[in-house]
Amino acid sequence: MTDATVPELPTTSWAVLGMLSHAEELSGYDLKKWADWSLQFFYWSPSFSQIYAELKRLEKHGYATSRTVLQDDGVRGKRMYAITEAGRAAAAQWVNHAPVEAPVLKHSVMLRAWLGHLAEPDRLRGILTEHIDYAERMRKLAEIDAEGADENPDWAYPGAVLRWCVRHYEAERDFAKELLADVARLSADAPKRPPKPKGRRVS
């Protein structure tokens, strides 16, 4: 069941609106910190310009409001954003009734491995090793953030997703290690090509 009164917004809009649903008010800086703390592990790591573009869209639809709060110096102002009742209802509608979409996987490292016949063997192994290190680094960061979320009862659901992210990056690391072993075997089994003649054109 869908509500025809809820506009079709990009998923990034719902992500920003969802972050606003966790607090009374947040600044654009707060939203950037929260996204880097949690969303980056499974969805999106936004720039400030993306965040403010989404906030502007949400205000246009009446899903968020903003106000300027003076800083301690009494001169500079900071804009704070809050979700509206209409925004909370729309976010709940999206969570409960949006179609379940297949995740989009655009894995550039796997694309390069898929084109391994064009790669220098040492370089391909280096690419996969870098990816293994990246996956392990992300696993550790997600684990730290999951432990932090567990300290606050209000973050029970983000904490559960962060624990899923830990397992995801563990699997990504282990799958990449298996692929690295496959690549090493393929390199060892590859027939040795004769060197190209030097000093003359080959027709």
Let me know the average pLDDT: 91
Q: Unreliable segments (pLDDT under 50, ≥5 consecutive)?
A: none
Q: How are the strands of the biggest sheet laid out side by side?
A: 1-3-2
Helicity, as a percent range = 55-70%
Enumerate how many helices there are, as a single number.
7
Q: Main sheet? A: 3 strands, antiparallel
**Total E-strand runs:** 3
What oligomerization state is this entry in?
single chain
Q: Indicate the proportion of strand residues.
A: 5-15%
Kindly provide the radius of gyration, computed on alpha-carbon positions and rounded to a whole number of angstroms: 24 Å
Task: Give an overview of the whole structure.
Keywords: DNA-binding. Residues 16-92 form the Transcription regulator PadR N-terminal domain. GO terms for molecular function: DNA binding. This is DNA-binding PadR family transcriptional regulator. It comes from Nocardia goodfellowii. The protein has 203 residues and is mainly α. Helix content is 58%, strand content 8%. The protein has helices spanning 11-20, 28-37, 48-60, 85-97, 108-114, 121-150, 156-189; strands at residues 26-27, 64-70, 77-83. It has a 3-stranded antiparallel β-sheet. β2 (64-70) and β3 form a beta hairpin. α1 (11-20) packs across α3 (48-60) and α2 (28-37) packs across α3. The N and C termini lie far apart (67 Å). The mean pLDDT is 91.
